[in-house]
Design brief:
The protein has 133 residues and is an all-alpha fold. Helices cover 66% and strands 0% of the residues. It contains four helices and no strands. Helix 3 packs antiparallel against helix 4.
Amino acid sequence: MESSQPSQLAQYIPVLFLLAAAVGFAGGTLAVSVLLGKFAKASKAKNVAYECGKDPIGEGSSRFSVKFYLVAMLFILFDIEVVFMYPWAVVYRDMLVEHATRNLILGSMISFLGILFAGYLYALKKKAFDWRN
């Protein structure tokens, strides 16, 4: 008995069309910019790098302090904590019906926040959030 469903390979045809459209658009855009760029009149002023209305003087990029990256990683860490709290809140609301798991799920979140808060206090004590020094 033959099923009316298309084969697995046929299911990927729309994806291949989308991939072809994306590659075609990217290649076409680049080709048009190269063709239009050949007809433009080049001058020294047009070929100079432009950034925010300032003339490029000095080094292209400055080095950041390691403390800056530490603050960025700490921000990501504490930001991810909030991401974990949303699904917990949804599950906790549903778990309130069951008396056996109510304290377990609340205790697990309190311990999670306690460990996170201890890490936050440690970072404050070590002045990890101040990248100027």
